[in-house]
Amino acid sequence: MGTLYLVRHGQASFGADDYDRLSPLGQRQSQRLGAYFASRGLRFDAVLTGTLRRHAQTWEGMANGALWGEAAPIAQPHPGLDEYDSHALIRALPPQDLPPPGTPEGYRQHFRLLRDALAQWMAGVIDPEGMPSWNAFAARVRAVLEDVRTTHSGNVLIVSSGGPIATAATLVLSAPAETMIELNMRLRNTAVSEFTFNARHHRLLTWNTLPHLDGADAEWVSYA
C-alpha cells in the first residue's frame, strides 16, 4: 500500500501578464509546506510534476523549505499533469462585455465564465483552440494515476494544478465529470490531498487540506 500526495501549486500571478510564476506569497506557501513535511519526517520515493513553471517553482520551494538540499528527489515532469487553458476556454464562448480585469467584479466574472466554459467543454459544445477534448484531458490524468499504481510504491508526490488534481479525484470517486468543476473551484493553493493506492486501485483519503497553514494568518490562504 502506498500513499499519493497531490499538491496544488502555490499562489500564481493571477491578473499579471505572466500567470505562470509564483507570487511572493506562493513562494512562502511552498516553503512552509516543505518545512511541514520535513517536520513530520515525510520523504518521497518519487516526485511527479506538470511541466509548467509554477509546478517546478512549487516543488523547488518545498525542497528548499524542507532543507533537503541534494537529497531532494529529482522531479519527473509529466505533461499529463498540466492545467487546461482557462483563457482558451473563455475565448471559446460567445463574445460578451466584460468588466475591467483586476477588479473584484472582473475576478468574479472570470470564474463565472470559466465554470460555464468548463461545463460546455465537457459536454463537447465548445472546442477551445489549442486544447485537447475533455475526454483526452481526463485520459491523460488517468494515465498518470495508472503509472503511479503500476510503477511506484511508498510515498509519491504530485505537484500540479487544480484541474488535473480535481480530475484525479473525480476519476477515483467514479463521479460525474461535472464534479470536477466544483472540486476544482474550491481547491486552495498548496492544498494537500491524499490517495492510498495499490496495484489495483486508488482510494481518496483526504481532500484540500492545509495542515502547514494551521495557525497562520488568513492572508496565507489563497485560491488562484
TrEMBL record:
<dbReference type="InterPro" id="IPR029033">
    <property type="entry name" value="His_PPase_superfam"/>
</dbReference>
<protein>
    <submittedName>
        <fullName>Broad specificity phosphatase PhoE</fullName>
    </submittedName>
</protein>
<dbReference type="InterPro" id="IPR013078">
    <property type="entry name" value="His_Pase_superF_clade-1"/>
</dbReference>
<dbReference type="GO" id="GO:0016791">
    <property type="term" value="F:phosphatase activity"/>
</dbReference>
<dbReference type="Pfam" id="PF00300">
    <property type="entry name" value="His_Phos_1"/>
</dbReference>
<dbReference type="GO" id="GO:0005737">
    <property type="term" value="C:cytoplasm"/>
</dbReference>
<dbReference type="InterPro" id="IPR050275">
    <property type="entry name" value="PGM_Phosphatase"/>
</dbReference>
